[in-house]
Amino acid sequence: MAGPIVIVGAGMAGANAAKTLREEGFDGPLTLVGDEPEAPYERPPLSKGYLMGKDERDSAFVNPPQWYADAGVELRLATRVERIDRQAHRVVLVGGQELPYDKLLLTTGSAPRPLPVDGAHLDGVLSLRTLADSDRLKETIAASSRIAVVGAGWIGLETTAAAREAGVEVTVLEMADLPLLRVLGPEVAQVFADLHRAHGVDLRLGVSVAELTGDEHHVTGVRLGDGTHVPADAVVVGAGITPNVRLAQAAGLAVDNGITADEHLRSSDPDVFAAGDVANAFHPVLGKHIRVEHWANARHQPRTAARAMLGRDEAYDRIPYFFTDQYDLGMEYTGYVEPGGYDEVVFRGERESGEFVAFWVGGGRVLAGMNVNVWDVADAIEALVRDGGPVDVTALADPDRPLDSLLGG
Which residue segments constitute the domains of the chain, with CATH numbers given? Predict the structure, then answer.
């Protein structure tokens, strides 16, 4: 029998790794450890379908609950890991129990960044990361007439859309000059500012939060840096997330904006691997280390890690992909661009029409593309990004030119 494998982090990434290990023929002891009481689930429904009441709670789970027992996976929920003893090849749980491993996979994910202001501890101050968070937020939206959202990133904007569709007044507070500015740049970020204002959102940009106000226990609003007070029945904090590297760092693994890993998802210890939000892995197509905080990465990356743990020579080279649904806007984004790391944005179609494709171009090649209410083009966009050759921007902007005709320059 093969030596034991332990996976720390029972989210989507951990569950997909466990499933792949069994599908690839691993028949040794396999333990999946998670600190939440829920079986592994996907996160997109938490701010999309489930939060909006369109999907059932069970739809979020990665596998049916019985799958783990049927597959011989020991699922240890509501269990915290104290430390990793790399020399002894053991994971030490809180309470002292030890789990031996031959290979270890860390899928510890990330955690919401707290708001460092007075009042952040008050009741009614919410974040959205777990299924329990989504349950609380659903209840809060149903019971509120007005909420404030701090941070106009993906989570903040999707939460805003859900609240507005439920008839709740929403004020969004964002430090930057536009929502999603670091991710999309000013050319495309304006689309999301216009979208939310068109749906009645009070979008306040370039503002700072000084404190959260409250009565004895419950939040009553947000005090801005200029002294303005924004009243609210609840405050949702979407100020970004931080990779959960505590265990890796304490164990002496290389850490830099996540757990540093190679293209096989192997950390600085050849017997320890990392996948999902927490992995800052070398990408062979992009030629750099990147850490991706999106669903597609948590879905696909662990499969490569699982095969690599079994000795297969496989590298993770999928192009980053994410999506969002807000009101009547559906969007897919394929590629990778660091803030400001492009020369121009080329539009295929008119932004004002609500149906277009935007391409981020740098050094004469397509770095990323985003299709908004235009479908069945994500594969072609990925091919352009992967191709990496020079592109004719005039042809790129022409809706009558098939995207696949632009491959190879």
Answer: 5-48+59-111+243-309 (3.50.50.60), 114-239 (3.50.50.60), 328-406 (3.30.390.30)
